[in-house]
Amino acid sequence: QVQLVETGGGLVQAGGSLGLSCAASGFSRNVMGWFRQAPGKEREFVAAIAWNRISYYADSVKGRFTISRDIAKNTVYLQMNSLKPEDTAVYYCAAGVQLGSFDVWGQGTQVTVSS
Fold first, then answer.
1. Are 54 and 61 contacting, i.e. CB atoms less than 8 angstroms apart?
2. What pLDDT, in 10s, does the model give residues 3-30?
3. Contact of 105 with 51, CB cutoff 8 Å
4. Could you give phi then psi for residue 86, rounded to 5 degrees?
5. Residue-wise DSSP of 24-86
6. Main-chain dihedrals φ then ψ at residue 87, nearest 5 degrees
7. Contact (Cβ atoms closer than 8 angstroms) between residue 20 and residue 107
8. Using CA of residue 9, residue 32, residue 82, residue 37, what is the dihedral sign?
């Protein structure tokens, strides 16, 4: 069964940290990444990492979030530090053959940052 399963969301105060994990099963892709969607807004790119561990970040999270990948475990992680209320969103894990072409999506996990 092809699936991505996210874990690690929750509630945190501004300035705090959270870590997200996403385990892939039944497939593999060159690129894995994270997107997020806040209420009333469109889904936006957060970060991605290729098979060679080259990573990409949205400007809004650069320097605060770190994406990493364990290829042996087929798992991608997102460490989020210095969280802000505007980081509140449902975070989705995604996988694809190349950056900009994600074809497998997780169910999402809620991240809420209180002020």
1. no
2. 999 999 999 999 999 999 999 998 888 9
3. no
4. -70, -5
5. EES---SEEEEEEE-TTS--EEEEEEETT--EEE-TTTTTTEEEEEETTTTEEEEEE-S--GG
6. -85, -5
7. no
8. negative
